[in-house]
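Worked example 3 (structure in, sequence out).
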């Protein structure tokens, strides 16, 4: 399926740079936008333990990829696309398992 979207990072002219992350799609309700939850750990030197944290990132979701809620995806940093979007979905790593 060939994509005609100019903002698609694979078929269009949108260049990626900087951070490449992977996470879980927690929402795909907005048009061409997916909310990705990225889990990570940080070290707390006072208690000598690791803290689990999470971040929710709004990413551009082109029609050719069309990530759905529950999918594991890779995202890459791009130029600012809107007020909240600076990332784009590059591929679906693991689709949601329907039982």
């Amino acid at each position: 399926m060939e994509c005609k979207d100019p903002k698609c990072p694979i078929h269009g002219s949108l260049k990626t740079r900087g951070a490449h992350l992977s996470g879980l799609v927690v929402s795909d309700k907005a048009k061409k936008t997916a909310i990705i939850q990225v889990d990570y750990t940080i070290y707390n030197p006072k208690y000598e333990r690791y803290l689990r944290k999470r971040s929710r990132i709004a990413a551009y979701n082109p029609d050719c990829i069309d990530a759905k809620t529950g999918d594991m995806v890779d995202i890459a940093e791009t130029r600012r696309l809107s007020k909240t979007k600076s990332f784009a979905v590059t591929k679906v790593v693991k689709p949601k398992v329907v039982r």
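Notes: The mean pLDDT is 93. Residues 25 and 36 are 5 Å apart (CA to CA).
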